[in-house]
Design brief:
The protein is α+β, with helices and mostly antiparallel strands. The protein has helices spanning 12-18, 63-72, 107-119, 125-130, and strands at 2-5, 23-38, 43-60, 79-86, 89-96.
């Protein structure tokens, strides 16, 4: 199955450790969404916003990888699954259930996300914008 990562799972070392079968395919942009950080975990989330994009990594994952991600993402309590179509292919990602106000991420979490942006060669301007709240 195809999975779209936009937060800490962009970090390919972390993703490989969590999902042993995962394969990074390429970077893609999710259109009409924006990146933000929220909840008591100060974790990444996406929300609809026209004319905005969320850069991310497209991964091929196995069924067992998906189960591991479900546990990590605290599905369906903290995150729910969101499906979208990309050039006719169905892609799964996670989005937070409760849209709480912006919370600046911890330094540790942010450094994992920044490493992921580097790993996937993503444009950091969208991350910088998200950090402004």
């Amino acid at each position: 199955m195809l999975y779209f990562a936009y937060g800490s799972n962009l970090n390919q070392f972390q993703m490989k450790r969590r999902c042993k079968d995962s394969v990074f395919l390429k970077k893609i942009n999710l259109k009409n969404f924006r990146l933000t950080f929220r909840s008591k975990y100060r974790a990444a989330d996406i929300e609809p916003k026209s004319s905005s994009i969320v850069p991310g990594g497209l991964f091929e994952i196995s069924k067992s990888d998906e189960k591991k991600l479900d546990v990590y993402e605290d599905y369906p309590i903290l995150y729910k699954k969101y499906y979208f179509s990309y050039y006719g292919k169905k892609i799964m990602t996670y989005t937070m259930v409760k849209k709480t106000p912006f919370r600046f991420p911890t330094e540790k979490y942010l450094s994992v996300v920044k490493r992921g942006y580097k790993d996937c060669n993503l444009n950091k301007k969208y991350l910088k914008k998200a950090l402004q709240g």
